[in-house]
Amino acid sequence: MEATSSLVQRFKQFARRGSGGSDHPRRTADERLPLPDAPPIDIAPDDPIIAYFQRASGAVDIDQISIDSPAIEHLRAAGVKLVVPLVSQGELIGMLNLGARLSEQEYSADDRRLLDSLASHAAPAVRVAQLVRQQQAEARERESIAQELRIAHLIQQTLLPKQLPDLPGWHISAYYQPARAVGGDFYDFIELPDGKIGLVVGDASSKGVPAALVMATTRTMLRASAQRLVEPGIVLERTNEVLCADIPRNMFVTCLYAVLDPTSGHIQYANAGHNLPYLRTASGVVEMRATGWPLGLMPGMTYEEKQIIVSPGDNVLLYSDGLVEAHDPQGDMFGSNRLTALMHDVASASTLIDRMLTHLTLFTGPDHEQEDDITLVALERSAAVWQHAPDTLGAGGEDADTMTPTSSRSPSGGDHRLLLEFSLPSVTGNERIAMERVAAAVGDLGIPSATVERIKTAVAETTMNAIEHGNDNREELPVSIRVVLSAGDLVICIVDQGGNEPIPEPTTPDLEAKLAGLQSPRGWGLFLIKSMVDEMRVAGDATHHAVELIFRLNENEGSGASVSG
Amino acid sequence: MHQFQAEVRHRDGVAVIDLLGDVNAEAEQALDAATREAEAYNPNTILLNFTNVGYINSTGIALIVGILARARRERRSVAACGLSEHYQEIFTITRLSDFMRMFPDEESALAEQPAV
Question: How far, in Å, CA of A152 to CA of A254, rounded?
Fold first, then answer.
């Protein structure tokens, strides 16, 4: 008898996997290590030969098989005389196929025992090789999915705004966090004629690359329409018409499109089935309703247009369903009621988004896997720059109050208690007057003395900067100061006439360097201001700086502060 | 508003500078003169007495940084007394308190001798 090794080399060998439970029932032999001259033989999953070989107790003589099997015919045609099934854990995972012996004698009992022994050793090894190959294929598939997600992320990130609009008198914040599966959220800011800004928040249905591509298409169409058309409803209408022709079946896009006039605070908007934005004024939070079907569902749609005025101190929040439809561990939704409740007592656009995200995390729990993209865009019209700064005052002395402490209403109807409004000429030393007047104006509020001292220092330093840097010590230029009590916040706004020079960001002075003579001992003003206040905002236009000093009086209630009146 | 004044006294090897008025840009000349007068006696410590100071602004902080820088070059210590709670807070925020000890009053400062 010939040695086993020569048998294996001499005869054609096919390692094949049986059909039982396989995800890949019809693989060709040339995927499975055939010898170079081995013809591939397919075995159909329902071929009875598979069950026959699985039950066989050893090498099988092909000529003695009488079942009706296409594979048997193929094997006979290929010159196979003897098949040694490779069975592992009851499953046919391959076969050793042998042709006629060179001696043209029949295979002996010894040959068959040797082949059976070889098969019993080869079967587990072949099985291991198959599993390794299967795992490699699965890994390649996972990598392919991951690569698709990376592409989807890339598409989204590439098309999202690189920077926020810088609008004097406005504070705009945005937050975008894609879910792991990548949804189709997007937001956009579009520069329009006359200094207006288009605001877009949208959500393409589906996930992954298809959603990202639809999002990209919608964004492009919206941008093109927005540049040519004025009314938001018409922009959505036109976008819908174009999108309907191109969008895959069963996909659609919800979208809120608004046009903001930063000068007047006027917002005109239309909504294609997107979550309703909210406007927060001093008198409450209201939904910005406008009806319209999502984009891409059907042509011929029209979109209702609405408008609002955003007054100084008001906030607007645009968002996607990833926020309100997030679930807690019990399956309850975050919901719009929770969102509006949170909006009621926020002070600024920047803290609005932080507040939403903090409460979302508390709601969903630390181990929560984000279900959908989350997009938030918040606008705030700063209360810092009021429209009609007091006129230039006479030089040399303190001007009379332009308004006595009284209760006033903002243009939007919200209550703001104006405590004091006055102007001073830009004369060194007037900062002390400003400080004392503001301290007197807040004297009846029951503010703790330590807080009053911080207010005084912040007002004096800000006024001094306004006199020296903003107004360049030109005494004919006024520094205007307004003190407002609003929703538990004391807001002190100090305006100078130096809008052409930006106010630098406060930094912490390097005291060691100053003591070593390496830096000027000066440079403490902005740092002191920042250290005294709860929040410092800087706004302005081409001719004014406005610094807003904010003291959150309610947050100090636990330490004895309170607000009366 | 008072014209700023700075008077120098010497007690137990300590030069006490009594400050009166607002410590701001207008105090620079008087403060500089008082510091030089105090240094003339080569004291180990200069004690700035803020008991009669009601207002210190950022320029005043810069003047104090200047006094401290010069004293450190001449290996003298500088201490402060009589600061209100608010200005103690500001000295802490600005980290001036890392380089000059703060005492409630002159007596407690001198009692710490020779520590001051």
Answer: 19
pTM assigned to the model: 0.45
CA distance A96 to A446: 96
Which 8-state DSSP code applies to residue A504? P
CA dist., res. A470 & res. A502, Å (int):
9
On whether the CB atoms of residues A425 and A396 are closer than 8 A, the answer is yes
Token pair belonging to B91 = 């000295």
Nearest-10 Cα torsion for B90, B95, B98, B102:
-10
Residues in chain B whose beta carbon is closer than 8 A to a beta carbon of chain A? 1, 22, 25-26, 55, 57-59, 61-63, 65-66, 68-69, 72-73, 84-86, 89-90, 93-96, 98-99
Q: Which residues of A touch B55 (CB under 8 A)?
A: 432, 435, 460
Query: What percent of chain A shows pLDDT beyond 90?
Result: 31
Model confidence at A398: pLDDT above 60: no
pLDDT exceeds cutoff 50 at A541: yes
Residue A474 predicted with pLDDT over 70: yes
**Does residue A407 have a pLDDT over 60?**
no
How far is Cα B47 from Cα A422, in angstroms, rounded to an integer? 40
pLDDT of residue A181: 61
Q: Spell out which residues of chain A touch residue B62, defining contact as CB-CB under 8 Å.
A: 520-524
Whether the predicted interface score ipTM is above 0.90: yes
Per-residue pLDDT tens over the stretch B52-69: 999 999 999 999 999 999
Partners of A511 on chain B (C-beta within 8 Å) are: 65, 94-96, 98-99
CATH number given to B5-83: 3.30.750.24
Q: Do A450 and B86 touch (CB under 8 A)?
A: yes
- Reported as a single tens digit per residue, the pLDDT across A111-143 is 888 999 899 888 888 888 989 999 999 888 888
CB B91 within 8 A of CB B56: no
Residues A199, A257: contact at Cβ < 8 Å? yes
The structural domains of chain A, ordered by start, are 4-134 (3.30.450.40), 160-381 (3.60.40.10), 406-559 (3.30.565.10)
Look at B58 and A454 and tell me if their CB atoms are within 8 Å. Answer: no
- The token pair at A41 is 């033989």
Across A217-239, average pLDDT: 92
Give the start-to-end residue ranges of the domains of chain B: 5-83
All residues of chain A having their beta carbon less than 8 Å from the beta carbon of residue B69 are: 514-517, 521
